[in-house]
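Progress note, project year one: complex with S-adenosylmethionine.
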Amino acid sequence: MDFFTSLETYLNHDQIELLKKSLNAKSKKGLFLNTFKMSKEEFIKLFPKIKQHPFVENGFIYDINDYDFNRHIFHEMGVYYLQEPSSMIVSSLLGKSQNQYKVLDLCSAPGGKLIQFALNNPQSTIIANDISFTRLQSVVENVERIGLDNVVISNNDFSKIYQKYHEYFDIVILDAPCSGSGMFRKNEEIRNDWNFNKVIRYSNIQKQLIDISHHMLKPGGKLIYSTCSFSFEENEEIVLYALNKYTDFKNIDIEIKDKFYQDYKTKLGFHMFPYLFDGEGQYVAILIKDGNLCFNNTNSHEMKYQDYIYKINHKIKIDDLNIIRYGVKYKKTIKNSKEVIYQYHYCHSLQMNNDFSLFPVIDLSMKQARTYVEGQNIDINHLTNVNNAKYILLTYQNIPLSFAKSANNQLKNIFPKYLKNKNYIF
Ligand SMILES: C[S@@+](CC[C@H](N)C(=O)[O-])C[C@H]1O[C@@H](n2cnc3c(N)ncnc32)[C@H](O)[C@@H]1O
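Model obtained:
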């Protein structure tokens, strides 16, 4: 069965024709602003051609001909996360709160849904899992740049350990692996590789992931289910499977805005179609498990692993996890010495923690910041507020850029080697 015929399960001829046409149009880009680092007003002032996302607070849409946000130094400084405009809608449905939710993002790489949720819910603690170790490297980089202190990154097949987390999580984000038809516009390879067997194969995997998610969800907890597939078998059918199998699951009605599409028969979740909204394909639904959510709040926690100290905003159960990153990579200790080496991740997390006052701060000019990220030292003869401090927090436009070490009237360059000389735009 070809792709468009397979959609006849829930779309009529006209809708399929509109979708066909829209798959040849150019994609728009999006980003989610980290307002711990820069306010919306400041951001719009600096990039006036950017457009506010119509459905996502702190979300923006832009034309690639206007800005190269990927290479901008603000990207490395974690001022925003580049995210496709439709996929950005998913986490926004979970809203903002100061609750201490315990959250599992079961399939988190490269981290889009996770980052938005973590910024919107800074008191929550999230286990960002993925089965692919390679793909998790980008989650580490993204969490580090954005400066999140509320994320544990793990590399597990939860089908082997889910029993250990019985009714543990307040929220499970299941952004499931899928046949990827929603990405046809962006990725020719996915388009050429599509076949209906793939849809069925993913549909079975998605059902298994629903089973383990249900087991791990607390009574009163929410499961947000999403895919970037257009296929009914990977979307509404999966939600129907969940509702039929688990009678304690209820569908949450989401307000269906103008540009969202809801299947009129099932009325479960909604689709984003490129012919209705200038983004890629996305499906999302939210289920809630019967019961009343009870919180068991925990304190912040530090952990030593090898020579490094890590810290997390609130303790979370990690006994059976293969941990890649535990909260903020804070500092390295040196055997038989009081000296510590502060880590790059820590400087980016200072704004989320409100810990700015712990270090002398030097706000660099554009020229100095450029010199620094190119890997050179900066002369500080004319600067006075450094005293004898070993570590200086360097900021650019009052946002942390890096630590530097002060010695011999110079700011010694300790910008990570792998980030130097990347031809950043300022
Ligand atoms: C759609 S992507 C996730 C995108 C991510 N949530 C985001 O917003 O950036 C699906 C991910 O599922 C992962 N995956 C596939 N099977 C999995 C499994 N059984 N358990 C956990 N992750 C899995 C893949 O490696 C892939 O990174």
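Residues 196-216 form the longest helix (21 residues).
Residues 106-113, 129-132, 135, 157-158, 175, 177 surround S-adenosylmethionine (CB under 6 Å).
No further modelling is planned for this target in the current period.
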